[in-house]
Structure prediction request, 235 residues.
Amino acid sequence: MEVTLKVFRYNPEVDKKWHYDTYTLEADPTDRVLDLLERIKGETDGALTFRRSCAHGVCGSDAMRINGVNRLACKTLVKDIGNKITVDPILGLRVIKDMLVDMTPFFDNYKRVLPYFINNTPTPADGKERHQTPEQRARFDDTTKCILCACCTTSCPSFWASDQYLGPAALVAAHRFIFDSRDEGAAERLEVVSETDGLARCHTAYNCTIACPREIQVTKAIGELKMLTVTGKLE
Prediction:
């Protein structure tokens, strides 16, 4: 099938303003958008710039807006979106070049929620790992699936308004550790997410849940954090 790919372009070294370039190429219905971009870069325009790594939906590096929706280019098939495709960088982050955006604010917010295991209690004398029941693991299993692609955060209107807002991905990371029965850093993280630029900035738009390529129930996780700040009960 013939596919028309309209691609956002911006090179600060030569462009005063962003624009679109349009490419027409033959594609199979099962080709991914990433395949098409790779062909353009390899055969037509080597200056085209975008992030990619594993190409299998694991690293999350090739997040971009495809036909106006945040997606991973490596998971988006031509047959699912049609033969007219528009590709833009994700919103809310400074464009460095083409689809390449500055992820610094995103990762700075992620670091603020202490996204690592905290436990100062000595390990068991027998040297074995800290145990938890299947039910305890299931309590936070969904939020362990995040691949930090930023699809959720850059689909959020509150983040578009201010990149000081922690954003959905950072709140998902906080949820993952706060509800882990082995972790002892809940109080510290709750203090962070309860700040002005934390949970209060979430207006339950649900964009984050729709955008997540891992199908994490992001809005639900944020709601559980909000409830926790009110009840103080880890259930």
